[in-house]
């Protein structure tokens, strides 16, 4: 391939990634206000758990895992052993192992340091939106995936971090009566509802929700992990039954 052809190919590839980035940003835009408010709740919780402002800023930029942060902070405030705090955060974040296993094959062609970089931005929002654009059957194709993923992940990270910093700096100025803690739930609902597109997805949502409520009393937030696993199994079972029935009808 000549230098001119190589340059043309690179320009075309860059154009595809830029358009994919814009598409990713448009897809995640409705969740940004909720993510910002959720980050603000986490920032306020960090300061009110007796962390200093510098410690709180360090935690939000290094950890970037809202549910794990909110689960760990009460334990840190209660001076429980560090091993318990670590185990709790690990269990709450185990769902990211599932997320990574689902998305990683799409980026297998990238060098390890780029996969590590993109893995830092993997979140509930990216897992909710990326497979809609790039389902499993698109794994062999490379075009537009990095652009679309970063178009979701970068704005999500900015919304979370700006909200966290605002919460850290304004912790003493925002009354709890505003009830902004519910914003995180609203943000996740904005992702979940559009994804419930068939009976298999609906079964997964219903079963996972019921199990999460029933298992809420399990220690270390294990109920969340159990709900994710059982919900996925229910969705896969319904999907298998529907495919079998469709095959018989044909």
TrEMBL record:
Per UniProt, which keywords does this protein have?
Cell membrane, Membrane, Transmembrane, Transmembrane helix, Transport
Q: Where in the cell is it found?
A: Cell membrane
Question: Record keywords: Transport included?
Answer: yes
Question: Which Gene Ontology cellular component terms are annotated?
Answer: plasma membrane
Q: Kindly list the biological process annotations in GO that this record carries.
A: L-valine transmembrane transport
Q: Which InterPro entries match?
A: Brnchd-chn_aa_trnsp_permease (IPR011606)
Origin superkingdom: Bacteria
Pfam families, alphabetically? AzlC
* Membrane-related topology note: Multi-pass membrane protein
Q: What residues form the membrane-spanning segments?
A: 27-47, 53-77, 84-108, 224-242
Subcellular location, principal? membrane
PANTHER family with a match to the protein in the record: INNER MEMBRANE PROTEIN YGAZ
Family label? Belongs to the AzlC family.
Q: What protein am I looking at? A: Branched-chain amino acid ABC transporter permease
What is the species of this protein? Noviherbaspirillum saxi
Q: What is the lineage of its organism?
A: Bacteria, Pseudomonadati, Pseudomonadota, Betaproteobacteria, Burkholderiales
């Amino acid at each position: 391939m000549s230098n001119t052809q190589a340059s043309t190919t690179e320009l075309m590839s860059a154009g595809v990634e830029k358009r994919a980035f814009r598409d990713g940003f448009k897809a995640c835009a409705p969740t940004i206000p909720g993510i910002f408010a959720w980050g603000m709740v986490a920032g306020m919780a960090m300061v009110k758990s007796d962390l200093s402002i510098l410690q709180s800023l360090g935690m939000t930029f290094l950890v970037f895992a809202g549910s794990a942060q909110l689960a760990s902070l009460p334990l840190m405030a209660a001076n429980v052993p560090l091993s318990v705090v670590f185990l709790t955060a690990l269990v709450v974040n185990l769902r990211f192992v599932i997320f990574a296993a689902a998305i990683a094959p799409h980026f297998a062609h990238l060098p390890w340091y780029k996969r590590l970089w993109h893995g830092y931005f993997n979140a509930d929002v990216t897992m909710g939106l990326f497979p809609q654009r790039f389902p499993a059957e698109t794994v062999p194709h490379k075009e537009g995936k990095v652009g679309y993923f970063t178009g979701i992940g970068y704005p999500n990270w900015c919304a979370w971090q700006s909200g966290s910093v605002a919460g850290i700096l304004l912790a003493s100025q925002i009354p709890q009566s505003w009830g902004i803690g519910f914003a995180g739930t609203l943000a996740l609902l904005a992702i979940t509802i559009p994804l419930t597109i068939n009976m298999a997805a609906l079964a997964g949502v219903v079963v996972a929700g019921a199990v999460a409520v029933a298992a809420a009393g399990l220690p270390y937030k294990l109920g969340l992990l159990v709900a994710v696993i059982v919900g996925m199994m229910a969705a896969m079972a319904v999907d298998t039954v529907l495919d079998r029935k469709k095959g018989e009808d044909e």
